[in-house]
Predict the structure of Sugar phosphate isomerase/epimerase.
Amino acid sequence: MLCGLLWSGVMKRSISTHVFLQQRLHAGLLDAMVAAGAQSIELFAARHHFDYTDRAEVKELAKWFRSHDCRATLHQPIFETRASDWSRHVPATINLIDVEKSRRIDAMDEVKRALEAAEQIDIDSIVLHLGTANDTWSERSLDLSMTAVEHIKAFAHPLGVKTLVETLHNDVTTPEHLMDMLRIAHLDTVNVCLDIGHVNLHDMGGVQNAFAVLGNRIREIHLHDNHGEKDEHLWPGDGTVDWDVVRKGITGLKHEPVGTLEIAYEPEIDAKAMSAKAAKAFAMLEEPVRN
């Protein structure tokens, strides 16, 4: 197919199960992602959706991945709630750099529980969140970030899982501050998940700047859109992101990134509709760059 020829070797297609966050993850949903062209799937770790503490559930998903030509990555848990307590109004509360030590320990333990799924599922990498929207850049946040990443890296490495840190909508994880943290801590094997929607927000420096600063430390890219004011996680093309800038940035990378559609969950969407939208988004992303 023409799109495959245009984009071959530039980006590995991926979809996050976040689009089905309100549903229990099962093989039929994974099948729909592959049908859309996904070569990799980001497992969004939330117990009501993908219960990484349920060994039988993890075993069943591992069986699916072994029988399909599809890779897996992992997004760390961000919700503290158990499966029976979750609703779409629950805020993200797991914070690896929380000011309270007990909450940092709880967050670390939950992330490690999710990583234990890699004992059965061959997971390539985990994406980490450092802080929440209210966290600011300081010597304290830098020290806590370095400690958290080093700890997770030490746990993930024996499982064969690479560690990535994500650009969030906070001052701790701007492209500049992430690069400072990786440099100061000598975290040469830890890389970055560039979230396009987050850096498109009005106070985050922009997409072009993010590619320029992060460069070849980018290993995964979260692909979603917004209108520059709030984090909407829209399908690419439904907001104000300049996708030609994204295409140019990707083609300039030394390492082929995983390009993950990380879309807001829609209560009414079914597997077939998601698959059609994802295929359309991939086709748009694979259009030739306009000069």
